[in-house]
Specification:
This protein is an alpha+beta fold. It is built from 15 helices and 13 strands. Strands 1-2-4-3-5-13 form a six-stranded mixed β-sheet. Strands 7, 8, 9, 10 and 11 form a five-stranded antiparallel β-sheet that branches. Strands 6-12 form a two-stranded antiparallel ribbon. Strand 3, helix 5 and strand 4 form a beta-alpha-beta unit. Helix 2 crosses helix 5, helix 3 packs across helix 12 and helix 7 packs across helix 8. The radius of gyration is 25 Å and the shape is globular. The N and C termini lie far apart (61 Å). About 3% of the residues have low confidence. The protein binds zinc ion. The site of zinc ion has 5 residues, from loops.
């Protein structure tokens, strides 16, 4: 379909549906009466789906699945989407727990994504303002990835209803940020071509406020690499000179890296865990592995850091007299860059929706947890939007990563943040799970879904917006910087990760799966009073 035909179709659809609207009036930037009415309708529709969204948030929280092992979550979401008329491609890009769902036809194609995986060791009773795991050592939603799909699906269903009635052309895609905590999949989605025909990607991620930004975002991109060494076993007391320790190579590599750290750029972040440290002390370790994250602010510096790591590994293998196996890339992420036109549109909708009305109980839980964590100022939940739309970071001193970066360098993208987290927490921690199956998370999700629904309507009703987004993408964002994947041709998704951990904990976790047919919400099922706070921290 040509752009002209598309505009004509949209206008005719709007005119048919709105006999009172001025004939042949094109959609004006900044909104028109018809579009505003549809947005209001979508907001009311989202509001009416409060219970639906709450159940989704609580259900995925109760599954608590680590990256690449999101089998229950995947099945659950696919069922909801199929029931609601979406066609679902399962197991995309060679990843069993990833899908791409599609509804509608024609342009624009809008892809709504959000992450679904959780954090090791973050098991926590929701609404309890101190560390109390549901299952000791088990994973849990210590970031809040249980909530983003509820934002997108609730918004999509509200807009789908309107698009069907108004006969608005356009395609809605819903996809999973599988294994985001491992930055494990989005580069593979790009490589497999899943974003080739997408016009705009609307991503959403849990946060402390209702927010969006454009331009370079503070934080890093990264490559995640596993180094494995092979030596020879020997009796560690009787004949140690016969052996060659792979663990020696791991330790030498780590020592080398920690000396080099002094001479790296301030913006870098690098960290590692030893995933194989040998078997028992009296057997010289034949195998050992160390897993590194190399983070930097741009592609050339990530590559440079990675090369330094490779050199350390080769040198360590020589020192220990062992072999270095071919390295494995377990994940990667480009630094994030968000689209100006789409962010401005989203920001306008954020201002219309505003923050949720927090109850005294919500604030009591937030403040009690902040005190528990010894935050100097226990200020509770956010009650004000940020002063204005945030633009590009001025001085990027580095930080976290999200592989939405890879999508953002292939398609105009923004990340909408919605307020389901309590401010001032460490992140990747049990404390971050506390709000995530409570009214705080539920209200934050509804606020996010309202914004997402309004932005979706903007994009399907105002073709000029999609054009502006691509103009920024081509003429500004990618004018000098071209995307090159960090994953190498031989790399494949690390779908074996976390399997052993989930196998260990899943049987016990199953006992706590949320049953919405019996309980209004997860707190009711767990019989937890809202909020549960120490008597000394109550106001
Ligand atoms: Zn995340």
């Amino acid at each position: 379909m040509t752009r002209h035909a598309l505009v004509a179709l949209i206008i005719s659809a709007l005119v048919v549906a709105a006999p009172l609207a001025q004939k042949n009036a094109p959609a004006k930037p900044g909104g028109n009466a018809k579009l505003d009415a549809l947005k209001q309708e979508a907001v009311a529709d989202v509001e009416s789906r409060t219970q639906f969204a709450q159940q989704m948030v609580d259900q995925i929280f109760s599954y608590g699945e680590l990256g690449f092992q999101e089998f229950e979550t995947n099945r659950y979401l696919i069922d909801i989407l199929k029931k609601n008329g979406f066609a679902v491609q399962e197991g995309i890009a060679g990843i069993p727990t990833a899908f791409m769902a599609t509804w509608g036809s024609g342009k624009p194609v809008i892809a709504l994504g959000s992450d679904i995986d959780c954090i090791p060791q973050a098991s926590q009773k929701p609404a309890v303002a101190w560390h109390e795991p549901m299952i000791e050592g088990a994973p849990g939603h210590g970031e809040g990835h249980n909530s983003g799909q509820a934002v997108n699906i609730t918004a999509a269903l509200a807009v789908k209803k309107i698009m069907e009635r108004e006969k608005l052309p356009g395609t809605i895609r819903i996809w999973t940020g599988t294994a985001e905590e491992l930055v494990g999949t989005k580069a593979y989605f790009v490589r497999a071509g899943f974003f080739k025909d997408v016009d705009i990607a609307l991503f959403t991620h849990v946060g402390e406020n209702l927010d969006v930004s454009w331009g370079e975002r503070a934080g890093n991109g990264l490559v995640s690499v596993q180094y494995s060494f092979v030596g020879e076993t020997a009796h560690a007391a009787a004949n140690p000179w016969r052996g060659r320790s792979a663990l020696d190579a791991v330790e030498l590599m780590d020592i080398g890296w920690n000396f080099r750290r002094e001479h790296l750029r301030l913006s870098q972040r690098s960290h590692n865990v030893i995933t194989d440290g040998g078997d028992q002390p009296n057997v010289v370790p034949r195998t050992a592995s160390v897993w590194y994250y190399f983070r930097e602010t741009d592609y050339p510096h990530i590559k440079e850091l990675w090369e330094t790591g490779d050199t350390m590994a080769k040198a360590a293998a020589m020192m220990a007299g062992v072999d270095l196996l071919p390295t494995k890339v377990l994940g990667s992420a480009w630094p994030q860059h968000f689209n100006k036109a789409v962010a401005e549109t989203t920001w306008a909708n954020i201002q219309k929706v505003g923050l949720p009305q927090w109850s005294d109980e919500d604030q009591q839980l937030a403040k009690a947890l902040q005190k528990e964590l010894k935050n100097p100022r226990a200020e509770g939940l956010r009650t004000k939007l940020s002063d204005g739309l945030q633009g590009p970071v001025r001085e990027n001193t580095g930080g976290g990563s999200d592989d939405i970066g890879d999508i953002s360098w292939n398609v105009p993208t923004v990340t909408l943040r919605y307020p389901s987290n309590i401010p001032g927490l460490p992140g990747h921690n049990w404390a971050n799970a506390i709000s995530m199956a409570t009214p705080i998370a539920h209200k934050g999700v509804i606020a996010g879904a309202k914004v997402q629904a309004m932005t979706l309507l903007d994009l399907v009703s105002r073709p000029e917006l999609v054009e502006q987004a691509w103009k920024y993408f081509k003429d500004v964002q990618t004018k000098e910087t071209k995307y090159e994947a960090l994953i190498r041709p031989e790399d494949t998704p690390a779908i074996w990760l976390n399997k052993a951990t989930m196998d260990k904990y899943r049987p016990e976790m199953k006992k706590y799966y949320y049953d919405p047919s019996r309980f209004k919400n997860y707190l009711e099922q767990l019989n937890i009073k809202y909020p549960t706070v120490r008597s000394t921290t109550t106001q």
